[in-house]
Amino acid sequence: MTTKEIILKLDIKDIKSIYFEGNKQKFFFGPETKRQSLFLVMFILIYPVFAYYALKSTDSSYFIWGSILLSFLAYHFLDVAKPIYKWKKSILKFLKKLEKIEVVKFKYNNDFFIHQEDKNELKQYWNIIDRAIINERYIWIFSNTNILLPKSSMSDKEYFELSEVVLKNVKNVEKNNSVT
């Protein structure tokens, strides 16, 4: 089979919407932090009761235990939110880098593919690819370097042909919805 080449016309807004779909970037009440956010907000609303009883009585144990519990809940929330913050920061850094790239090409055949960004080339053989995701919006290839190929950056024919090659050559392909 001859090597085919796709010149990708990247749209940063489309790539951003792919990365941030499903509100994964939200710190409060996001998919990963919903429970911790709920506990923290509920306790912040209850905390004045602990403070009130501590001021009303000479025993400050209510205030101490309330402060310990608030600190624990805040620490637990931050422990869950920190990876989301780091992930979001790395994605925004990647998107800024992507804005500076002028030419993105994807060359492929049945044996390997070459992903080229300006002068940088990455050549990988299909047999070392860990997995891939194909759906109606993108093809995402996972290996030591992850490659996202939005459908909007190529023609429908190119997208269909590339998805067929990925389905044929990658062992672990997650296919969501129809590919056309």
Please write out the topology:
Blueprint: E1 4-8, H1 12-19, H2 34-56, H3 61-100, E2 104-108, E3 112-117, E4 120-125, E5 131-134, E6 138-142, E7 147-150, H4 156-169, E8 173-175
Parallel strand pairs: 5-8
Antiparallel strand pairs: 1-2, 2-3, 3-4, 5-6, 6-7
Describe the structure.
With 180 residues, the protein is of the alpha+beta class. It has two domains: 4-11 and 101-174, Pleckstrin-homology domain (PH domain)/Phosphotyrosine-binding domain (PTB) (PH-domain like); 21-99. 47% of the residues lie in helices and 21% in strands. The chain has helices at 12-19, 34-56, 61-100, 156-169; strands at 4-8, 104-108, 112-117, 120-125, 131-134, 138-142, 147-150, 173-175. Strands 1-2-3-4 form a four-stranded antiparallel beta sheet, with no helix packed on it. Strands 7-6-5-8 form a four-stranded mixed beta sheet, with helices on both faces. A hairpin with a 2-residue loop joins β3 and β4 (120-125). α1 packs antiparallel against α3 and α2 packs antiparallel against α3 (61-100). The longest helix has 40 residues, at 61-100. It is elongated. It starts with a strand and ends in a 5-residue tail after the last strand. The mean pLDDT is 86.
How many whole angstroms does the radius of gyration measure? 24 Å
CATH fold-type name of the largest domain:
PH-domain like
Q: Cα distance, first to last residue?
A: 22 Å
Beta strand %: 15-25%
Oligomer: single chain
Biggest β-sheet, characterized? 4 strands, antiparallel
In terms of structural class, how would the helical and strand content be classed?
alpha+beta
CATH superfamily of the largest domain: Pleckstrin-homology domain (PH domain)/Phosphotyrosine-binding domain (PTB)
